[in-house]
Each structure stands twice: as C-alpha cells, then as structure tokens.
Amino acid sequence: MTQERDNKPRRCDLLVRADAIVTQDGERRVLTDAAVAVTDGLVAEVGDYANLAAAYEPEQTLDLSGKMLLPGLVNGHTHLPMTLQRGLADDLPLMEWLQNHIWPVEAKLNETLLASGAKLGCAELIRTGCTTFLNGYFHEQITGQAVSDCGLRAVLGEGFFAFPSPFFATAEDCWNTVRALDERYRDHPRLRSAVTPHAVYTVEPDQLAESFELAESLDIPWQTHLAESPMETALCLEKHGMRPVEILRSLNLLSPRTTLHHCVDVTDEEIALLADRGVNVVHNPASNLKLCSGLSPVQKLLDAGVNVGLGTDGAASNNQLNMFRDMGLAALVGKVSHGDASAVSAQTALDMATRNSARCLGWPELGRIEAGCPADMCALDLASANLMPMFNPVSHAVYAATGLEVCMTMTAGEVLYLYGDFRTLDMTTLREEATECAKWARCAAGRGKNTK
C-alpha cells in the first residue's frame, strides 16, 4: 500500500516537453528529450521526459518537440515607451541625439501615448522571448498597467533629472511618486520598483544621495546611467572635477543595491572599485555602437568579478528590443574590444542575458529553469534553417538565432505567445495605435502636421 502511494503520479499544472532544454542552472546543464513540470507558476522539476511523464499527471501538456527551451530572457536596461521614437533620430552622437531630438519630443508625451508605447514594447519583448525587464521612464504606472495586463514581469523606475524638471517641481514630489509606485506594486506578483536618477551629469549630487537613501529605506534597487561615453566624462570633469565613477564613490553610492548602465568609459582602477563594492553593471552593446559611445570593457569587468547583465536600452537608441541580437553583439564586440576570440563566450553572453541580468534587477531566482524558480521560459523552433544542424544549443542561441525563431514565450507558467498567437495582446488594435503614434511623433519632432 505504501509503495503504491509513493509511485502514484504527482499532480502538476503543466508538463512542457522539448528536444533540448538549456536550463541555465548552477551546473549550466543542457538536457535532451527533456521536460519541465510546472505547478503554481513555479518549476516543480526539470529532467528526462520519460521520467517526468511517468512521475507527473499534468492538467495540461505542451509538446515542443523540435524546439529548444530556454529561460525567459531578462532585459537589464530599457525605456519601454521609447518605442514611440524608434527611428525618429538616427546616426547621431549621444548628446546631440538626447538634447536636440529625444528630450524635446519626450516633453510632449502624455499618458495615452505612453500606454501605446508600453504595449508596443511588451509585444516586442514577448515576441523575442524576453519575460522580464528593468525599466526607467516617466509615469511608470502606465507601463506597469501594460505589463500587468500582458503577463510580463518588470522592475519599474520613475526617471528624474535635476529639480525642477518638466515632470517634478521638487525633489519631494519625485520621492512621493517613487513611494507611491513602490506601494502600488509591493504585493504584485510580477511588478517591482526601483529608484532611477537619470545620470550624474543631469542630477545634482545631493539629489543623487537623497535618492539612494530612499532606495535603502524602501529596500529596492537603485539604477542610473553611468560612464556612457567619453563626452559624459568630460562633462563631469568640467562640472564636478571628478569622473563619473568617482562622483558615486564620493557619495557612497556604490553597493550591491546599485545597477549602473553602460560603463563604457571606465578605467582599470574604477573596474576594481566596482568589483570591490559589489556593484552591478548592465552592458548595452547595440545602443553603445549606434550612438558611437564606445566599447565597454566587458571581459575586464567580468574578470574582476563584476556582475554584468545585458540590456537593449530604449528602442530609440537601439531600434530593437531584441535580446537575442544584443546577446550576439555582446559576444562579438567583446572579442574585438578585448583582442581575444575567447572573450565574452557564448555561455557568458547567455549568462548575461539571463542569470546576471536577474541579479541586476534584484530578482536572482529568474533567468534559469530550475526547481523552485518561476516558470518563465521561451522556445526556439529548431526547424529554422539558420538553426540546422545543431551541435551546441548555447552557441546557436547566441550566434545563430535572430529572436524571430521564438515560437513560445511563457511567464509564471502562462503562455503569452505561441506560434504567432499573442494571447494577452490585441495586435490589430495595437497596430492601429502605432499608426496614430507615428503621426504624433512626426508632429512632435516638427516634421509634419498632427492629424489626430
């Protein structure tokens, strides 16, 4: 009787089968003809398909034969509603792009436009296998609503500049907004908050320090752009007599709570300091290249022990929110930057886009397919010509995949996208909204009349 009870199949909500599963667990196991059992939005077990099929009695099954299963990718840095400015200002250096093209248009945004931009961003992330992102923008509750509705995960940061600004008259106005955002999402299963000053050259030192104190009091991440280009360094030296990293060091803002975006113009001594303080860095290769900001010394950061995640940045400076493209670029550019073909390996790039980015978000249980972790996954169709033949699944995910081979995206065990079907978004309505947003953007940029 006892033996019979022990052998009785266990219940699970979902059993997913795939030809290959890149687990990204502690051992970086890659399993063949394998399966994942999902219960209550979490991975119950991952292993050989035959064993799990015998051990579990699922409510539903998802047969992904001929597919490769990966953890949902984690975008460590983006500005989601900037999909509205995709292609609006190309082929320009960072400061000219920001000051003359992006900031003037952003000043004219409203909540309706931000909602459309956020939904467009969610659709692109879902389509390319990304299940979680770290955001920084304005009126973040709007992006939060889009994320909540479509089933993704996000850490949301209300962006701010030196006060007064177009969005906040005083620092206290901003801190109250951050507190309200944190309270709104404190108990949400898929949404969290962060404190998000724009950069050391656009926010005063005392305000940076106050914002960090706020992050500590709320026990949430603190993120900012830093050392994005040599021009930023020159501005900091002129304004404060210090390089960007030194400014944060002088204010005691370097800690494991800190996530820095870009870190292109950093010295060996600064890298050692970031490693010593446990700071997280997010690499943004496509954006850095497009704005000609420079090449981040990623392998040096990794070798020093810095946790380096991966992000797309906004669609205005990348033109895509496709983490597969940034994975490939991170590996390729990393080799050239370091002068070593073995630098930023395929496995390293995949780690950056999954486990490492999850740490940057303060959400370390993400970015892996492992028992007890959230069931966030995506699948690549191995029938795609560019993925045949397959010798090494990790190599294919980084060097061969484009992101458009994604045929399934799942968060917390819920399928958001399957074989062209967006299950949580109305793409027909969204396309119509995108058309109207394009008219607005042209008008906002002074390139035509708004016909809305």
UniProtKB/TrEMBL annotation:
The keyword Metal-binding applies. It comes from the Bacteria. Residues 68-415 form the Amidohydrolase-related domain. Binds 1 zinc ion per subunit. Its cofactor is Zn(2+). Zn(2+) binds at residues 77, 79, 225, 313. GO terms for molecular function: 5'-methylthioadenosine deaminase activity; metal ion binding; S-adenosylhomocysteine deaminase activity. It is an enzyme of class 3 (hydrolase). Pfam families: Amidohydro_1. Its EC number is 3.5.4.28, 3.5.4.31. It catalyses: S-adenosyl-L-homocysteine + H2O + H(+) = S-inosyl-L-homocysteine + NH4(+); S-methyl-5'-thioadenosine + H2O + H(+) = S-methyl-5'-thioinosine + NH4(+). Substrate binds at residues 106, 198, 228, 313. Keywords: Hydrolase, Metal-binding, Zinc. Transmembrane segments: none annotated. HAMAP family: MTA_SAH_deamin. Belongs to the metallo-dependent hydrolases superfamily. MTA/SAH deaminase family. PANTHER family: AMIDOHYDROLASE-RELATED DOMAIN-CONTAINING PROTEIN, AMINOHYDROLASE SSNA-RELATED. Catalyzes the deamination of 5-methylthioadenosine and S-adenosyl-L-homocysteine into 5-methylthioinosine and S-inosyl-L-homocysteine, respectively. Is also able to deaminate adenosine. This is 5-methylthioadenosine/S-adenosylhomocysteine deaminase. The lineage of its organism: Bacteria, Pseudomonadati, Thermodesulfobacteriota, Desulfovibrionia, Desulfovibrionales. The gene is mtaD.
